[in-house]
Amino acid sequence: MKTSDASSRPTFDLKTLLGDDSTRLWWQRPVLWLGLLALLVLAGGIYFWQRSTTQRTGQIYVTEAVRKGNLTLTVAANGTLQPTRSVNIGSELSGTVKQVLVDVNDRVKKGQVLVVLDTAKLSDQVLRSRAGLAAVQAQLAQSSATAKEAQANLIRLEEVSRLSGGKVPSASELDTARANVDRALAGETSARANVAEARAALSTDETNLSKASIRSPIDGMVLSRSVEPGNAVAASLQAVTLFTIAEDLQKLRLEVNVDEADVGAVKAGQKASFTVSSYPSRPYPAQIVRVAYGSTKTDNVVTYVTYLDVNNEDLSLRPGMTAAATIVATERSNVLLVPNTALRFAPTNGNSPAAASGGSLVSKLMPRPPASGTRKAGGNQVSQGPKQIWVLQEGQAVPMTVTTGISDGRVTEVESSSLQEGMAVITDQRAAGAAP
User: Fold this and answer.
1) SS3 for 429?
2) Which CATH number describes the domain made up of 76-84+246-331?
3) CATH says 119-211 is which class?
4) Exposed end of the chain (fewer CB within 10 Å): N or C?
5) In the chain, where are the structural domains located?
6) Of 369 and 320, which is predicted with more confidence?
7) Is the pLDDT reported for residue 381 higher than 50?
8) How far is CA 393 from CA 245, 397, 427, in A?
């Protein structure tokens, strides 16, 4: 009985309980693929959600307000200070210096004696010339007397011939008398010429004697002296400079070299300022009086000499000082100003990868080409012609055409009927969430 009860109990097969899945490999199980598909769907949803959020937020624009102000275009140039008029004093005569009566920094008057040469030889020449003049004057007197005598003799013979009816004297005697008169008159003329020559020689020697005392031709100050008593002075085609005298140091002239790229903006009458090494923190005013048309070429650099008048009443400036000048070429007052970055800005497509990342690395590293119609003037940019800027209005970038003027390299003068002070001009663009 016990045996039959055991055999009558139902038996369960393990394979039947587990089913057919126990024989499949892991990658053949549908549960695994369903899980992976769910993960992909979740990742795709997150991606599209982030993208839609970025599109909704759009781009972030960096702006700067339009303002009114003053703008100045300047030209930089270097040069040296010179006196308005200076004279180099030399000697027309050769000789030995006897006295030097002035020194450097002395003020002199016109006609004042500066140097005296040894006059011993010159005095002897004057005495010799006076003696020669006296001799020729005596010869003139003798020639005049001879001429008068010959004329009187001719008159007497002509009277005798008239009274005798031409019988006496003979014709040959009359001819001889007339010849003697002509000869005497010629001798008198020659003697007069000798007197004039002797007087000219005496005048020259007296002039040379007076020039032995070298005098100042102008009122001024002695800038340099290169002569000492006892020096020998040799007159030549080019006289040796003994003194340099400046007419008036209270008025100086600054000579600067303006580059050919800037000379078009420089004109007579413009104001300027300059500094010197002795007073680096003190600006001196000046005014342009002349811009030379002749050029100067140094190391393949073409420059034009520009002259500026300088007031030096306190005598703090000295001739020869090196000056760094700043010339005010153009001034604008109370004009609209925008940053130069706004003139170079152009919006990019917000859906592009470059815009989303704030621009590619290459575009950030590579410099943008300069705007057309610009000209350098003393380190400033002068933009001319119509340009386009972008103004932020109600969160949108709106283009606006403006006419540009002068620029100092940071801001530019603009004109437009629609642009107003305080408007926000766009200078840069970044994607939402991007690091500034």
Assistant:
1) strand
2) 2.40.30.170
3) mainly alpha
4) N
5) 58-69+334-431, 76-84+246-331, 88-115+215-245, 119-211
6) 320
7) no
8) 69, 6, 14
